[in-house]
């Protein structure tokens, strides 16, 4: 299914999540960790939005907020034109049906005491009234959908390999025919050959059922492979968001450029002397007035220390938050889009 | 490469077999007839997926096999002498001074109760017990500077939990370097790190290798890390080396169907494909390996012969070995 540009499925606006922490030895003074600090984006029906960021960038917290596993400090998440944090219990249950999640570690997210059949039918038992026969039938359908078979029905998670377990998580996620699946590092723990199987499976399911994905990962190649659009997060904020090919050929934010440069080459002939970005992300506790990337940025000037750049649409569908964007397009020889 | 004085390699592993046995069960061969050499100043990458035996190979070299594991055949020569015949004590003296190791998860390798400086000092004292406390501390801070830790004096006084993952891995490398080893074994040292941190650590290891001529065995599952850092590559599958070549040769002319499969399955930034080509199926259970070629059930090029014939590792051309009866070069490969 081709994504419809008008058909916005999920809209996140000004989303913030601040976690309070007690300062040592000073019980009165409270500090906050700004895990997510003003994030806005949208996902269209049937498309894949990749969210890339390093540890602590807030990408998993965004996922938990969308899943309603956390309450936001500020901002809203609108799913199918309804604010998900402002609805009745009954409406909420409906929304939960429509948004599902796949986690990084399938072993930790599957109940070890449930069989494959029980696992994939659990969402159906909670949300739908189905006869035992229908449940059995659906369980088999779901397993076959993800490349497993009849003989897997009564097995327990420990009897599956890592890749098969992730297939099982996916079968559970599609059981209620959701509109959106949030994949949080869903392939990061898998071996290369298995990772490719799961990526292809996700693409296939999207094609067949028009499911939209939010694909959260730190590995750029996998994100590039699966996403239509990509958002780059840094220190709780989105610093750049663009169509996949634009982002890889013409990154504007210096952090995006640094991330792309840091990806090891796919062939030893492309080894290059890289200008590595120094240092590490800032503490999320210390209040910053300026740009979060300022301490590591090669383009930073005085103004960047005091004046935080806003995420603005500088070119059509290409948003970035930077006062001094990267000028030269990225090395086109090595990194070409699919149309080049 | 700085191998001009002598032709003895730094490390030479010959026909290594490592088995694991649990009570009452048949023992499992995890490393099966593995042979390779590492020369001074050379970076040899061992690439493979989970269960390929790459980590057990390195633990066999270091003498760090967990209980139940034992080397049942083969030899490991370090600078010409067989280290498998050494006593436990002699073996311990090799570790740190001659060869040292860094691991994937630096947090579980560091002592959470000790300050960074004490942990580095511990490694220094083992190698130079005669030094004064003052000198040892100075050395510790020098090592932290060597691994490019900013504000080394302050970091030396911190505890592991106060450092980021990248910093912890730098501390691990500093500890590994304390004895000035000639061989460094790095077991997935960047797998748990972020992309920009990974690039920094890879650059650091490359730099140490160039500056000090340290031989490096770099274990990873990630072919692009191999492309970035290795001089030579060993590809392992189900306990065996299935292909070994220089890094350029391997990426330009891969010969084993498994190597080719890995390359096709790996998403890259410069690939233009819409669909990845995964390797079908799963890696074999080591307790129940197929007869014939271990890769046979997943191989798109397999023939009748592969079902029974156990392929030998053979040299196709100088420096390029492959364990396959139908390597690409011989041009008989046809996808099923």
UniProtKB/TrEMBL annotation, chain A:
This is Oligopeptide transport system ATP-binding protein. It holds the Pfam family ABC_tran. SMART domains: AAA. One of its GO terms (molecular function) is ATP binding. SUPFAM superfamilies: P-loop containing nucleoside triphosphate hydrolases (SSF52540). Residues 10-260 form the ABC transporter domain. Keywords: ATP-binding, Nucleotide-binding, Transport. The lineage of its organism: Bacteria, Bacillati, Bacillota, Bacilli, Bacillales.
From TrEMBL, chain B:
GO terms for biological process: peptide transport. CDD domains: ABC_NikE_OppD_transporters. Gene3D superfamilies: P-loop containing nucleotide triphosphate hydrolases (3.40.50.300). It is a peripheral membrane protein. InterPro entries: AAA+_ATPase (IPR003593), ABC_Ni/Peptide_Import (IPR050388), ABC_transporter-like_ATP-bd (IPR003439), ABC_transporter-like_CS (IPR017871), Oligopep_ABC_C (IPR013563), P-loop_NTPase (IPR027417). PROSITE patterns: ABC_TRANSPORTER_1, ABC_TRANSPORTER_2. Signal peptide: none annotated. One of its GO terms (cellular component) is plasma membrane. Residues 11-263 form the ABC transporter domain. Transmembrane segments: none annotated. This is Oligopeptide transport system ATP-binding protein. It comes from Oceanobacillus limi.
């Amino acid at each position: 299914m081709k994504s419809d540009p008008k058909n916005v499925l999920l809209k996140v606006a000004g989303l913030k999540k601040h976690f309070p922490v007690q300062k040592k030895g000073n019980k009165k003074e409270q500090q906050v960790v700004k895990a997510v600090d003003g994030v806005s984006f949208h996902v269209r029906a049937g498309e894949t939005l990749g969210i890339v960021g390093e540890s602590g960038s807030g990408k998993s917290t965004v996922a938990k907020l969308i899943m309603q596993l956390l309450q936001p400090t500020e901002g809203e998440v609108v799913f199918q034109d309804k604010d998900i944090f402002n609805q009745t219990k009954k409406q909420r249950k409906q929304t939960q049906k429509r948004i599902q999640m796949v986690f990084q570690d399938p072993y930790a997210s599957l109940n070890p005491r449930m069989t494959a059949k029980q696992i994939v039918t659990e969402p159906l038992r909670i949300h739908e009234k189905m006869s035992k026969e229908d449940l059995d039938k659906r369980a088999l359908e779901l397993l076959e959908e993800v490349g497993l078979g009849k003989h897997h029905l009564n097995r327990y998670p420990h009897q599956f390999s890592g890749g098969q377990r992730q297939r099982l998580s996916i079968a559970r996620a599609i059981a209620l025919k959701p509109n959106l699946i949030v994949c949080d590092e869903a392939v990061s723990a898998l071996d290369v050959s298995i990772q490719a199987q799961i990526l292809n499976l996700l693409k296939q399911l999207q094609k067949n059922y028009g499911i939209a994905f939010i694909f959260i990962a730190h590995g750029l190649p996998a994100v590039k492979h699966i996403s239509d659009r990509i958002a780059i997060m840094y220190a709780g904020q989105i610093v750049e968001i663009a169509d996949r090919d634009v982002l890889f050929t013409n990154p504007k934010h210096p952090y995006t450029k640094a991330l792309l440069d840091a990806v090891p080459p796919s062939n030893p002939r492309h080894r290059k002397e890289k200008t590595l970005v120094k240092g590490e992300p800032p503490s999320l506790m210390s209040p910053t007035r300026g740009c979060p990337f300022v301490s590591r940025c090669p383009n930073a000037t005085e103004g960047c220390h005091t004046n935080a750049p806003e995420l603005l649409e500088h070119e059509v569908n290409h948003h970035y938050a930077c006062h001094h964007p990267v000028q030269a397009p990225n090395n086109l020889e090595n990194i070409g889009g699919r149309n080049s | 490469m700085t191998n001009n004085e002598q032709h003895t390699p730094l490390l030479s592993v010959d026909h290594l077999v490592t088995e694991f046995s649990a009570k009452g069960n048949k023992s499992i061969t995890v490393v099966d007839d593995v042979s390779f050499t590492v020369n001074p100043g050379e970076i040899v990458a061992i690439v493979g997926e989970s269960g390929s035996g790459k980590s057990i190979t390195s633990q066999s070299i270091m003498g760090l096999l967990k209980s139940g594991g034992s080397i049942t055949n083969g030899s490991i020569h370090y600078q010409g002498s067989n280290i498998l015949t050494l006593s436990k004590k002699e073996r311990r003296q090799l570790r740190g001074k001659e060869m040292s190791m860094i691991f994937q998860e630096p947090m579980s390798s560091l002592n959470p109760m000790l300050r960074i400086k004490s942990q580095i000092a511990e490694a220094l004292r083992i190698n130079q017990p005669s030094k004064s406390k003052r000198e040892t501390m100075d050395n510790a801070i020098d090592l932290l500077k060597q691994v490019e830790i900013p504000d080394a004096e302050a970091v030396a006084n911190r505890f592991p939990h106060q450092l980021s993952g990248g910093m912890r891995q730098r501390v691990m490398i500093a500890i590994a370097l304390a004895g000035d080893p000639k061989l460094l074994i790095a077991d997935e040292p960047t797998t748990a790190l972020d992309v920009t941190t990974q690039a920094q650590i890879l650059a650091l290891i490359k730099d140490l290798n160039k500056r000090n001529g340290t031989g490096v065995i770099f274990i990873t599952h990630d072919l692009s890390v191999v492309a970035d850092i290795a001089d030579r590559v060993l590809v392992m599958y189900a306990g065996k080396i299935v292909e070994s070549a220089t890094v350029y040769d391997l990426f330009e002319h891969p010969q084993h169907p498994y190597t080719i499969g890995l390359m096709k399955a790996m998403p890259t930034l410069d690939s233009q494909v819409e669909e990845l080509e995964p390797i079908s199926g799963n890696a074999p259970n080591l307790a129940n390996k197929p007869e014939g070629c271990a890769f046979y059930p997943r191989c798109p090029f397999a023939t009748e012969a592969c079902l029974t014939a156990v392929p030998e590792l053979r040299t196709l051309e100088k420096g390029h070995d492959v364990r396959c009866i139908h390597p690409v070069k011989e041009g008989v490969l046809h996808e099923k």
